[in-house]
Design a protein that fits this description.
The chain is α/β, with parallel strands linked by helices. The protein contains 8 helices and 14 strands.
Length: 318
């Protein structure tokens, strides 16, 4: 691309989400980078880059999906391989940043793993990071290298604007998600409600306490950054239905869906649609009609192009 600060743009993909890498390369009109990544029988990860990357602008895409620790290790080894192959610049592209909930010491004698992973990426040789909707904003400050954080907020807003759900109220499943929910509520010209919750222990169990706002006789849209076991969302759905909501739509950027969460959620009749992005790969080729994946490739591809060309990424959201 003309005007690039570094050499040719190269995108390499680990094993966590090759489909997204393929779509990004199609969007950019470039061939997929060639790299071999596999495990030996002793579970040691092997990486070999199968093309010249000397002085090139290398973007390594790896979503921290299950198995999370294996995929993080793959990313670190791929970064080291690119560094030792004399890449001009290495950007770690992480659509979903796992360990985002471990962003502070909220109990005695616990780690801040989100910071540890940030340190590992820098130590391995990453020059910058590109990610989507971090669980907590302060994680960006854990890095000593530039971090561009994209948001799927506009994609979700546009989807529900086109859907045109009548008599809608936007609900934050917890107080921590109130800011994002407020942004969606303003964009969709809808009122805001919040479910106050209390998390019980470390096993994902959630106890809802109170609903702040009016949902009786209305359609509800819940919004969160990620859906993991679905405990928070199930609790919120129960709270709004008990308060008189007639139907529920739910959206999140990251569909982690641990421990059969999709099946449990879609078994709830009042949940009309579950909308996430493809920051994490879907399980299975045939998706249930009530589960919708919004494609991130255009957003991430445009951001990669702007980083490569030395242009503003923030301008994407103005």
């Amino acid at each position: 691309m003309a005007g690039a600060v570094y050499g040719n743009l190269t995108i390499l993909s680990g094993n966590s989400h090759p489909g997204l890498s393929t779509e990004i390369c199609k969007f950019l009109g470039i061939p997929e980078g060639k790299v071999d990544v596999f495990k030996f029988k002793n579970e040691n990860t092997f990486v070999r880059i199968l093309q010249n990357v000397r002085e090139r602008d290398v973007f390594i895409l790896q979503s921290f999906s299950s198995p999370v620790n294996d995929h993080i290790m793959e990313m670190l080894i791929m970064i080291d391989a690119a560094k030792r192959a004399s890449a001009g610049r290495i950007t770690a592209v992480i659509p979903y940043y796992a360990y985002g909930r471990s962003d502070k010491k909220d109990q005695p004698r616990v780690p801040i793993t989100a910071r540890l992973v940030a340190d590992l990426l820098s130590t391995a040789g990453a020059d910058r990071v590109l990610t989507v909707d971090l669980h907590a904003g302060q994680i960006q400050g854990f890095f000593n290298i530039p971090v561009d954080v994209l948001t799927a907020e506009r994609m979700i807003i546009n989807y529900f604007k086109k859907k045109g759900v009548k008599n809608l109220v936007v609900v934050a499943p917890d107080i921590g998600g109130a800011k994002t929910a407020r942004n969606l509520a303003e964009a969709l010209d809808a009122p805001l409600a919040i479910v106050e919750k209390r998390r019980v222990g470390n096993d994902g169990e959630v106890e809802s306490l109170n609903l702040i706002g009016e949902v009786a006789g209305r359609s509800v849209l819940t919004v969160d950054d990620e859906i993991d076991t679905g405990g928070t969302l199930m609790s919120a759905i129960e709270a709004v239905c008990d308060a008189g909501a007639i139907e529920v739509y739910s959206c999140a950027t990251h569909g982690v869906f641990s421990d059969g969460a999709v099946n449990r959620l879609l078994a709830v009749e009042s949940l009309k649609e579950l909308v996430v992005t493809d920051s994490l790969p879907s399980n299975g080729e045939k998706l249930p009609p009530r589960l919708v994946y919004l494609p991130l490739a255009p957003l991430m591809g445009e951001a990669i192009s702007r980083i490569h060309e030395g242009e503003s990424v923030g301008a994407l959201f103005k």
